[in-house]
């Protein structure tokens, strides 16, 4: 029996099969315990015990190998494994981790593009004083930009129907009128003076809201507009570049943009702002072409283009027209994206600071000489706009909170 036992011993390889060793030895009789044939009728065969080093050393090897794997696993894999167990949140994007920096970058880009547009726009008018034609170029470059973006699907073009077209047409007309009149003012007077007069836009907005839309404007809001009116009046009386064309066209621009805001509220749709602005630009371009052809067409053909080319050359002339149109469209688009990211209060402060930036840079770049009274009036007007904007923003925020919590 001893010879049978020794000849049937289970062959164990201590090298390659080491990892197959079980943590404890099993005998043949235990492995056949589930068979129906009684084991008493079978020859009693027993395996000799497995070598101790097999079932002892193997777990130790596995343990050390597991520790080695854990030590060498990259942190990213560990984070992913932990996230699968619900212990670690997914990694946040840069914008989610640093929202203030991203918003600040949007504001900086908005201001930068706006300042560049105003400076380049005025330089074009210094040798090519045709604001109606330049206004067409502004919108034309923007429309081509939108069409290219639609062609590549960034963004995807939203469909438009007859009803929406009728709603957007008054908005586009006011946009075209305000844009053209602003450019007429820019061509006639200093950029700083035009922006000082355009600081009166909140006054026209308040007047239209109460007398056209029937909305009750609080007394505090009306009082905040008094410094704006006083400041603009002081700046206008002593502005060295003052002329009635520049002043009246800036005032018409204020009225046009006020009615643009009114019609925009009536034309609120589910379409995103980028597509809405694209359609408005296309319709506004159609409104701007006829007056440019009628009022400036003969002069441009006779000597306007030739004079500009003789002063700066054909390449620079075409380049300036292209870039002034591109900066006009980009600063408006970035402004929309910026204002969608911030609260009404931040929006109000941002608009005031933008006007301060433009006025300050235009004075430095063009070296416009202003009187002391003009400087004081400009500061008073800007301060009044700031106060008005803060009060209006607080009112909007309170209205929004009351809408969210009607029971409080």
From TrEMBL:
A Pfam family it matches: TPT
Residue stretches spanning the membrane: 100-120, 132-152, 164-181, 219-238, 244-263, 275-294, 314-331, 352-368, 374-391
Key words of the record: Chloroplast, Membrane, Plastid, Transit peptide, Transmembrane, Transmembrane helix, Transport
Bilayer disposition of the protein: Multi-pass membrane protein
Superkingdom per UniProt: Eukaryota
Chief localisation class: plastid
Cellular compartments annotated: Plastid, Chloroplast membrane
Domain Sugar phosphate transporter intervals: 102-389
InterPro entries assigned to the protein according to its UniProt record, in alphabetical order: EmrE-like, Sugar_P_trans_dom, Tpt_PEP_transl, TPT_transporter
A cellular component annotation (GO) from this entry: chloroplast membrane
One of the record's GO molecular function terms: organophosphate ester transmembrane transporter activity
NCBIfam families cross-referenced by the UniProt entry: tpt
Protein name, UniProt field: Sugar phosphate transporter domain-containing protein
Organism whose genome encodes this protein: Erythroxylum novogranatense
Top-level taxonomy: Eukaryota, Viridiplantae, Streptophyta, Embryophyta, Tracheophyta
């Amino acid at each position: 029996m001893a010879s049978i036992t020794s000849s049937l011993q289970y062959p164990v390889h201590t090298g390659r099969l080491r990892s197959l060793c079980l943590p404890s030895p099993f005998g043949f009789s235990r492995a056949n315990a589930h068979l129906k044939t009684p084991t008493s009728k079978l020859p009693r065969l027993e395996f000799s015990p497995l070598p101790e080093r097999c079932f002892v050393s193997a777990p130790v090897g596995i343990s050390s190998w597991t520790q080695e794997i854990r030590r060498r696993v990259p942190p990213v894999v560990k984070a992913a494994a932990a996230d699968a167990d619900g212990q670690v949140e997914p990694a946040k994007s840069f914008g989610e981790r640093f929202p203030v920096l991203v918003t600040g970058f949007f504001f900086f880009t908005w201001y930068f593009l706006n300042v560049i547009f105003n400076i380049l726009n005025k330089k074009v008018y210094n040798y090519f004083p045709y604001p109606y034609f330049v206004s067409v170029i502004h919108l034309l470059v923007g429309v081509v930009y939108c069409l290219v973006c639609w062609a590549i699907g960034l963004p995807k073009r939203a469909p438009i129907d007859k009803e929406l077209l009728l709603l957007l047409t008054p908005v586009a007309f006011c946009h075209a009128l305000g844009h053209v009149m602003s450019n007429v003012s820019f061509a006639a007077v200093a950029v700083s003076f035009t922006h000082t007069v355009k600081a009166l836009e909140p006054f026209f907005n308040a007047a239209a809201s109460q007398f056209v839309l029937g909305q009750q404007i609080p007394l505090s809001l009306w009082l905040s507009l008094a410094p704006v009116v006083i400041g603009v009046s002081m700046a206008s009386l002593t502005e060295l570049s003052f002329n009635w064309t520049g002043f009246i066209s800036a005032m018409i621009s204020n009225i046009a943009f006020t009615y643009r805001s009114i019609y925009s509220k009536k034309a609120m749709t589910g379409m995103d702002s980028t597509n809405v602005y694209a359609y408005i630009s296309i319709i506004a371009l159609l409104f701007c072409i006829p007056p440019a052809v009628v009022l400036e067409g003969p002069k441009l053909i006779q000597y306007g283009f030739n004079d500009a080319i003789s002063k700066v050359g054909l390449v620079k002339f075409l380049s300036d027209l292209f870039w002034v149109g591109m900066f006009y469209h980009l600063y408006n688009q970035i402004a929309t994206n910026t204002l969608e990211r911030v609260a009404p209060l931040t929006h109000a402060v941002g608009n005031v600071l933008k006007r301060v930036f433009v006025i300050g840079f235009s004075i430095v770049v063009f070296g416009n000489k202003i009187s002391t009274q003009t400087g004081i009036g400009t500061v008073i007007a800007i301060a009044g706009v700031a106060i008005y904007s803060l009060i209006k923003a607080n009112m909007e925020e309170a209205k929004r909170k009351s809408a969210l919590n009607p029971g409080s």
